[in-house]
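check these tokens.
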Amino acid sequence: MRWVFASPCSTGLVLSLAAAAQAQSAPEASHERPGAVAPQASASLRVTREEGAESCPDTETLRAHVEQLRGHQTTSEPSAYHVRFSRRGGVFRAEIRVGAGTGARVLRDRRATCASLEQATALTLALLFDSDLSALPSDKTETETEQPRAVELPKPPDRPTPEPVRPNAVHLALSLGGAALFGVVQPVAPTALGEIGIGVNRFRTGIGVLWMPQQARDFGPGQLRQTLLSGVARTCLTAARSSAVRFDLCSGIYAGLLKVRAYAYTRNDSADKAWLAVPAGVSLTTTSAPIGVEVGASALFPLRRNDFSIDNLGVAFESWHVGMLLSMRAVGTWSL
């Protein structure tokens, strides 16, 4: 027969059985000769620990644990018990044998520490001592081909984890939003953004458009009115991801046309100039589906700076050496 304890929460039931066993053995002890001292059952206990099971109790620790449970009681004819602790395949295991017998009680526990198995082993030994068992059944021995049937101690409930991204997961994305453009045509100007793209695992790429509605700038006796329309190509790499958000590193190219018209001057001219810039930025995107939110910040390194001037008045606005774009978009994703 093999005894296995499901978990430390069964301590109350085991202690009740131990008390019953003590009550049955008490009348036999009353027939001993007056003054006779019964040997300590814990004195006949020996523990060995295999490699990997060093965290399990040694002989003295387990002996003290058993005596604590039994209240230092004695039995008339204690048996010699040998407990061997081992760990294989992430499972702690305790074999309890009587002397050199081949029969064994086997306890197992899949927890990360040996504490629960120590408790179960001590309770089993306390019952064996109190019942004064002299031998274990040896009709079946544990071999390589026949393993003892044992009930594994239940694992504590795991916290729910987010569903991992499937390998080679492909999804389409569409984003719309607004942004603030710094240092290109004015210190700050509002813009609108739109983009469609595709993502595979940690990479995503897309093409889109950036549009700045007409902005007026008073300069001298007149006014300059400017608009910007640019195409966008962007590629992002996911640097970190959690169940709630994704952090990306992004770059690409902005290529567009900047238009400026003069009003209320002696000569009102207009000019169209190409605008090119390379972004280097970061974005933080919620992973909720199908609609999420992306917040981004990019430094804009202009490949060509466009500064407009008025005769006899000078440069109306000197663009920054490095511009900036702060954006917020709503992002829709669909898995393929």
